[in-house]
Amino acid sequence: DVKVTQSSRYLVKRTGEKVFLECVQDMDHENMFWYRQDPGLGLRLIYFSYDVKMKEKGDIPEGYSVSREKKERFSLILESASTNQTSMYLCASVGTGPQPQHFGDGTRLSIL
Amino acid sequence: QQPVQSPQAVILREGEDAVINCSSSKALYSVHWYRQKHGEAPVFLMILLKGGEQKGHDKISASFNEKKQQSSLYLTASQLSYSGTYFCGTAEIGSNYKLTFGKGTLLTVNP
Fold first, then answer.
1. pLDDT of residue B52
2. How far is B96 from chain A (nearest CA, A)?
3. Measured between alpha carbons, how far is A26 from A28 in angstroms, rounded to an integer?
4. How far apart are CA A4 and CA A71, in angstroms?
């Protein structure tokens, strides 16, 4: 079974801090994604990566950046956290072809 | 632009049927369906590809109308375990891996 592991289930940070969310997958998938989930808004794509060091903006990239130095790891960075970035963050990965995306358990991030 | 899901919420009694719809304004390559229970990760249900196919999985099935860019998820003889939020994710032609998700449909099945 595919395993997508997010480093923290819950995280509390302060406004202005630099925040790192880590995601690791164990299935050698080329494609990895970061989503943000808010009540009533569904899952919205922040950034995705289709190969090491390659990235593309999703629908809501403002205030975020990403890093993919190794194939199995995809990091989401909040350069200067703000309260409106309080949310559930989900990481997912998928291989080539029309396959299901596999999700991590999510990180509930609170910015105070 | 997110696909539009309807209804936003539905309440059923065990054994009743439900239909959840997903509509896009884009030309689609595939439609994915997921179910998410509270506090858990979304779980994959099925993928429908361009070509207008219909798929089934136990008592949950789905169809994809390529001409209308619409998909429907059918839940028959609902069970308590079907409760959760259902999301459709759509992949546009030429963007096979990137999904755009709808806002979700909250399904509650009561005894």
1. 62
2. 7
3. 6
4. 13
| Rounded Cα distance, A60 and A56, in Å | 11
Distance from CA of B24 to the nearest CA of A (A): 15
Tell me the C-alpha distance between B11 and B13, whole Å.
7
- Please identify every stretch of chain A with a pLDDT value under 50, giving residue numbers as ranges: none
For chain B, which residues make up each domain, given as ranges? Answer: 4-110
Average pLDDT, chain B: 91
What are the pLDDT digits (tens) for A41-51? Answer: 999 999 999 99
The CATH class given to the B4-110 domain equals: mainly beta
> Residue B53 has what pLDDT?
67
Across the 111 residues of chain B, what is the mean pLDDT of every consecutive 10-residue run?
A: 95 97 93 94 90 73 91 94 96 85 96 94
- All domains of chain A, ordered by start, with CATH? 4-111 (2.60.40.10)
Residues of A in contact with B30 (CB under 8 A): 98
In order of A31, B4, B31, B66, B80, the CA distances from A98 in angstroms are 12, 21, 10, 16, 30
- The closest of B27, B35, B25 to B95, measured between CA atoms, is B27
- Per residue in B47-64, pLDDT (tens digit) is 998 776 666 667 899 999
Which chain B residues are closer than 8 Å to A41 by Cβ?
Answer: 103
Q: Among residues B99, B103, B74, which one has the least CA distance to residue A32?
A: B99
Residue A54 corresponds to which amino acid?
M
